[in-house]
Amino acid sequence: MTETFPAQTRSLVFRLLETYCERNGLRLTAADPHGHAGLVESPAGKRSFFKGTRFDLNSYGAAEIANDKAYAALFLKQAGLAVPTGRFISGAEIRDCKRLPDTVLDFAEQTGFPLFVKPNTGREGRDVMRIDTYHTLQNALHILAKRHDQLLLQEEVKGTELRVIVLDGEILAAIERHPPKVEGDGHRTLAELIDAEPRINATDSRLDLELSQHGRHLETVPAPGQTVTLLPVANLSSGGTARIVTSQLSPGLAAIARRAAETLNLRYAAVDLILPDERHPGTPAIILEVNAAPGLSNLSRQGEREAALVESIYAALFAALFVM
C-alpha cells in the first residue's frame, strides 16, 4: 500500500521504491509531494525512513565522515589508499583577510598549479573550480568562502574518472565519467554550441573561468571537429557524460573500491577514482572522494541502458535495506 501524491511529481527514487513496496507488501508514505522523503513500514511494524538518496543503511557517523572530504581523505590515507594531496581551509580565515594565509600560499608553491578548490562538503561537483595562478586562487577562495564555511584545496590529478558503486562488498556498477564538451563546426561560437546542449547550464560562472585558462572565451569559434572541454568536473549534473564499464573493471580497481567503502564503514557507497593517464604507467588509482548517498537520476537520463542499470542498483539497495 502506498500513500502518495500525483505520479508525475515524484522523484526517481520514490517511483522505484513505490514499485518495490507494492511487490513486497510494504507500506510507503511520502512526506512531501515530490517523494523526496518518506517512510517504509512492514506488516510487522518495522519502520525505515529515507530522505533523497539517504536511507537507513549506512550509519550516521560513517555517512558524515564520507561527506567531509578532508576527514574522509585522512582515514583513507591512513588505510594506505592513495588520495590527492590537499589542504583544509576555514572559510573564516579567508573572508576577512586581503592576503591569503601563508599556509595556503606555501601549499600552492609546494604543490604547483593547477589546483582545485572546492567546498569541503557538497555533492555533484557544485562550486568546484580549477585554478592556475595565485591571482585566480585568491579570487576563487574569496568567492567560495562567502558561500561555504569549509574549503579544500587539492592538487590536480590528471586521468580518467571512474565511479564504482559498492553494496556490502559487491560491485554493482562501474561508470566512466567525462567532463562536458562541445565539438566545433567552424561557424558557431562556444556560446552558441553551449546553448545547443540542454544538459549544460549556460549560466554556470565556471565556464568563463575554465575557458580563459585555456586561452578561449565564449565568443571563440572552434575549428571543425575540434573538441573543447568546458568544465574541470565530470559530474553528470554539470553536463558530463557517462559510459558503463562494469564488465571491464579490473580486479585491482574493484578491490580499491571495496577497501575504500570498508575503510569508511559504509555498506553502500559510490567510490570516485581517478585513473592516471597512459603517460604515468604504474601509478595507482587515486580516490577522489567517497559518496555515502550517491544520486543516480542524471545517470538514468543518459539512455535506456543507463536507466536499466540504475533500476538494478536500487533494486539491490532496497533488497539489502528492507529485509524485514
What's a quick, concise take on this entry?
One of its GO terms (cellular component) is cytoplasm. The chain is an alpha+beta fold. It has helices at 12-24, 60-67, 69-78, 91-95, 102-111, 134-145, 190-195, 206-212, 251-263, 297-300, 304-321, and strands spanning 2-3, 27-30, 37-41, 47-51, 54-55, 86-90, 115-119, 129-131, 150-155, 159-167, 170-178, 181-183, 227-229, 241-244, 268-276, 286-291.
Describe the structure.
The chain is an alpha+beta fold and 324 residues long. The chain folds into four domains: 2-52, no CATH class; 59-83 and 158-179 and 233-324, D-amino Acid Aminotransferase, Chain A, domain 1 (2-Layer Sandwich), CATH 3.30.470.20; 85-156, 2-Layer Sandwich (Dna Ligase, domain 1); 182-231, no CATH class. Helices cover 33% and strands 25% of the residues. It has helices spanning 12-24, 60-67, 69-78, 91-95, 102-111, 134-145, 190-195, 206-212, 251-263, 297-300, 304-321; strands at 2-3, 27-30, 37-41, 47-51, 54-55, 86-90, 115-119, 129-131, 150-155, 159-167, 170-178, 181-183, 227-229, 241-244, 268-276, 286-291. The strands form four sheets. The protein has a five-stranded mixed beta sheet with strand order 1-2-3-4-5, with helices on one face. A five-stranded antiparallel beta sheet has the order 14-11-10-15-16, with helices on both faces. Strand 2 and strand 3 (37-41) form a beta hairpin. The longest helix has 18 residues, at 304-321. The chain is globular. The mean pLDDT is 91. Residues 73-322 form the ATP-grasp domain. One of its GO terms (biological process) is SOS response. One of its GO terms (cellular component) is cytoplasm. This is D-alanine-D-alanine ligase-like ATP-grasp enzyme. One of its GO terms (molecular function) is metal ion binding.
